[in-house]
Amino acid sequence: MSNRLELQEITRTFHDGGNERTILDRLNLEVDEGEFVAVMGPSGSGKSTFLSIAGALLEPTSGRVLLDGASIIGKEKQELSELRLRKIGFIFQSANLIPYLKVEEQLMLVAKLAGMEKAKAGKRAKELLDKMELAHRRTAYPDTLSGGERQRVAIARAFMNDPAVLFADEPTASLDAARGLDVVQMIRKQVREQRKSAVMVTHDDRVLSLCDRVLWLENGKLVER
Questions:
Q1: Tens-digit pLDDT string for the chain (225 aa)
Q2: Where is the ABC transporter domain (predicted)?
Q3: pTM
Q4: Residue 213, domain member (yes or no)
Q5: Number of domains within the chain
Q6: Which of 69, 58, 79 is nearest to 8 (CA)?
């Protein structure tokens, strides 16, 4: 097994008035391929900052982030944008689907942005929608889907460009218990089958049994209880 995601000695500080505040303090994390890790912590513990740095949306004050063994620190904006498109998949609390695009078109758009050949993209979209049990909803618009279906479309879209790492930010927050478990089971299945690394920030302890590890963000560091 190899680590698809590594955070090495990540520190992030902010200036709050005249004071310097440390949000992350020499935080370390390694996630193997095929591994699904949950991160928990109270509001204000730094989970959003952690996810933003790991997902190449925010630079740390110090430390390194590696995707598939290559550092993403110090890259230009355009390079980071390309990296997020090709190497990272995001799933959020809300599915954030484009209202005027059908289910299959949601996936084809991200493939087009990444420059994927159309025939290859069509085949990939079909495979993912089959795996997500959404083949029958291929031509449906988002407003006709259930909450669980919308999140499953978001999972398929996140996997469309074959990313190395998947980040899920409270993916069950707007779902009931049954649909939440269904969505997280889908994420776990895809991560294991496709040998991705995945990190899910959550407050939902109902889904923790589906994760390989559960870490807590405390005092700027990730700890296992």
A1: 588 999 999 999 988 777 888 999 999 999 999 999 999 998 889 999 999 999 999 999 999 999 999 999 988 889 999 999 989 999 988 889 999 999 999 999 999 999 999 999 999 999 999 988 999 999 999 999 998 899 999 999 999 998 999 999 998 888 888 888 988 998 999 899 989 999 999 999 999 999 999 999 999 999 987
A2: 5-225
A3: 0.89
A4: yes
A5: 1
A6: 69
